[in-house]
Design a protein that fits this description.
Length: 279
Amino acid sequence: VLGPLLDEVADPTGCTGAQVVAGASHDTPSAVAAVPLAGPSTAFISSGTWSLMGLEVRDPVVTEASLAANLTTEGGYGGTITLLKNCMGLWPVQQSRKALWPGDGAPSYAEICDLASEGEQWSAFVDPDDPRFLWPGDMPTRIREYCEETGQPIPLETATLFRVIFESLALKYTWVVDQLSAVTGREIDRIHIVGGGSQNELLCQMTANASKREVVAGPVEATAIGNIAIQAIASDELKDLHEARELIARSFPMKTYEPKGFFWREAQERFAKLMEKDD
């Protein structure tokens, strides 16, 4: 608790007597605080325009392996450590939608997912974190150029283009979770996705299929929820983070995706070769 709200803010807002509580360092640890983690075997993805992937650990993981995997070590709530990897999220989808439908009448993201589900499966993959995909602009052209440069079929059809994006994201998430497992020595059997991306059912199911791990999606507004939970603990409304997470699990809808099919091995091998080229 940092202290009472300043009078210059409290008086015009009617919030006299309100206490100001420090958050969990910034937005990502606040989102992590809202993840009803089942234990050390659960990785998290705070998913939106970008994807923040990681594990909650008790001690910093500062090793040659974590350096090679480009993992960061950040402070979390209650003395925890967030072992984190910054990855691409739904930015390529957003930019492709903007490029293909620049005016009114663009399909909704749910309609784009329906479209992608009709595209050709595993026609090509991209490394979503290739630097060319970071900037705003003509994302479809960049994706097609990447596929051409890497000797893959060029996704000319819009449905296949979006399927390439979603499948590549699912494979990159799998790649990172495997890195987290290798660096920490943990067996990771569940991925918990929070944030806006948790509403994308197609990507959640693909992530479960590609990783062969259970995926749990929700809550959506994890950053705000985690922040509120931390304030409730500071105000003695909740005992600790464990109790807060139990409350969050009971209070917000979540959906579980079980892996379906066992045929992603070929896709993983092809994706791994792309990652080796990028390295």
